[in-house]
Amino acid sequence: MEWSYLNPRDLPDWSSFFSQVICVEGHGVRHVFVSGQVGVDARKQLAGDGGFEAQTERAFENLGTALAAAGAAWQHVVKLTIYVVGYQEARAAVIGRAIRARFAAGKLPTCSLIGVQALAESRFAIEVEARALLDREATPDNLPQQAGPV
Q: What homologous superfamily is domain 2-135 in, according to CATH?
């Protein structure tokens, strides 16, 4: 098996603590593991007004950047794990919009939505991590196309 560790420049640099993405390739399959993405830009500044919606959108944007760095796309995601500080049911609508904007109806990944007391920094409201699978030979030019939002 081949392992690669990625820390894309367009994401915050946490490399002294963890890798943003790890790819494990073997038996014709690439497994992509993306660390939890939060609602900050590459300079670690909170997105927009710092509210839950802005942080959610930015966390998903960061997740897309991490997937792309590994040669993966939304349609390759098999599992999302979403951590929400002080979870309230109304926040599910915001998260649901972010998910539906990226995945085709009927082709949603598995998902765990977990309410937590806190994340790594007190200013973070949401963290989204993913696991993806794709053919080892897949490249951005020959990835299968998914109908609907991507």
A: RutC-like (3.30.1330.40)
